[in-house]
Amino acid sequence: MSTPRPDLAAPHWLVQLLRSKPVPVPWNMVARAVFALAVPLAVAYAAGDIAVGALISTGALPAVLSESAGPYRYRARRLGGATLAATAGYLVGLLTGGTPALSVPAVILVAAVSALISAAGSNASVAGLQMFVFCVLGTGQHATGVRVEVLFGFFCLGAAWSYLVALLTWTVRATSPERTAVAHVYVELAAMLSATDEAVSRVARHRLTTAMNTAYDQLLTARSWLSGRDAAYRHLLNLLSATTPAVEASVALVNAGRRPPQAVIGHFVALSASVLASQPLPEPPPATGDDGDPLLAALYAGLVRIGKGDDRKRREPTPWYRRLRTWAGSLASGPLTWIAALRLTLCVAIAEVVGLLVPFERSYWITLTVGIVLKPDFGSVFGRAVLRGIGTLAGVGIGAVVLAAGGHGWALVALIALFAGGVAVGKVRNYGILSAFVTPLIILQMDLANTGSWNVVVARLVDTALGCVIVLVFGYLLWPGSRRPQVGGRLADGLDAVAKYVSHALVEASGGEARLARSRARRGAYRALA
């Protein structure tokens, strides 16, 4: 085979940008996205007005775009805040749309606010992005000819529907693979303690070691996919950690050629069944009268510790006024957030002016592209601009194919479902994949259902290209310091944050305030290293 010429090979940076993250497909998120976006269209089409379904489906977009893995309470706050922010932004866009003297200042102001509130945390950042995105989309809805109150009502209906879908499906989110792995540890413990032959016992010890490793691997891997704390995974991990003393005592007992009472073996079997059924753990059997045996005493102490493995108190939630004070302090302490807000505001203002000059209807996509690419805490501006352009080109190509095939009716519902699933996958795999599916999804929801014109496809492609050019020129090439990341200073700040955490971590906490300070220092170190 011939070796490809170096000058024909793709640039290394482009290969890195296009590389997909090796994470599992989030099938539960895919199912929720498909159900939330496709069902309103299907019901409306069956009732004879698919345009109404498209408007309701648009209201379901904020929750789908903000969806994230994590615990129930964390996602409820995240999606609730994002949905409320998107609703507020959409209303501002609807009220100011059609009048450039009102819509342009409103969009610029919302862009600045969304950048500033991003410093309050990841949930606030997602809410700020949704507020800006749907404010921009709302400014373009005056062209539909539908009254503002009707548009806003359909949007609220779709937002409530999507949030309800998420709430109903979260309650049945399974942790069965991890539960099975932890339960298997107790099964192997019982098998090892029941072995009567030395060779069988040796094999059982190896199987127990494998079961422990597998359980830890599955729990830590599952935990790494989450965006927040999860009570179910925390309980399983604490339970597995609390089992270690019992495992060590059991191995020592077997190595000494001893067998525990049958009640202990039965207790391990009962522990396995309780973990599988997600039921309260059974009480450990009472200790035998042989108090002089240190091995049995250690084993019974280990059984008692298993029952108390999740007794650690949860950290009290931070009051809202303290979070607000922390956010205000972050704005006052450094210029990074203000610089990012200024860059976003400037580029959005340029995009709004260009949108007034471009001879395309609904040229709000220019501003939309600028805002999504320049969101201050979403990584490389250059990389996101390139991926946005590539993904939009692919997405517009898909939209062109849909138009050429005459996608209407049930075919349109099926395509919306397909694109919704692609959005859920793209969120965790690659930003280019996300753009490739978001573009035709929004085109079908907000444009093709009303116009069905090839001009829509051309306009979306030109608008996105103009938005990417604005970002690359004014937000990257001409922006001071954007091509020379200040790694040295941030590395020094990171080392200072780590040193501060170490100074707290190596001293025994004397009270609640000391533990709180240590927790804050740890989170500060994590943020600095990230």
Automatic annotation (TrEMBL):
<feature type="transmembrane region" description="Helical">
    <location>
        <begin position="79"/>
        <end position="102"/>
    </location>
</feature>
<feature type="transmembrane region" description="Helical">
    <location>
        <begin position="381"/>
        <end position="403"/>
    </location>
</feature>
<dbReference type="InterPro" id="IPR049453">
    <property type="entry name" value="Memb_transporter_dom"/>
</dbReference>
<feature type="transmembrane region" description="Helical">
    <location>
        <begin position="457"/>
        <end position="479"/>
    </location>
</feature>
<keyword id="KW-0472">Membrane</keyword>
<feature type="transmembrane region" description="Helical">
    <location>
        <begin position="433"/>
        <end position="451"/>
    </location>
</feature>
<dbReference type="GO" id="GO:0005886">
    <property type="term" value="C:plasma membrane"/>
</dbReference>
<dbReference type="Pfam" id="PF13515">
    <property type="entry name" value="FUSC_2"/>
</dbReference>
<keyword id="KW-1003">Cell membrane</keyword>
<keyword id="KW-0812">Transmembrane</keyword>
<feature type="transmembrane region" description="Helical">
    <location>
        <begin position="33"/>
        <end position="58"/>
    </location>
</feature>
<feature type="transmembrane region" description="Helical">
    <location>
        <begin position="108"/>
        <end position="138"/>
    </location>
</feature>
<feature type="domain" description="Integral membrane bound transporter">
    <location>
        <begin position="351"/>
        <end position="474"/>
    </location>
</feature>
<protein>
    <submittedName>
        <fullName>Integral membrane protein</fullName>
    </submittedName>
</protein>
<feature type="transmembrane region" description="Helical">
    <location>
        <begin position="150"/>
        <end position="170"/>
    </location>
</feature>
<feature type="transmembrane region" description="Helical">
    <location>
        <begin position="338"/>
        <end position="360"/>
    </location>
</feature>
<feature type="transmembrane region" description="Helical">
    <location>
        <begin position="409"/>
        <end position="426"/>
    </location>
</feature>
<comment type="similarity">
    <text>Belongs to the YccS/YhfK family.</text>
</comment>
<keyword id="KW-1133">Transmembrane helix</keyword>
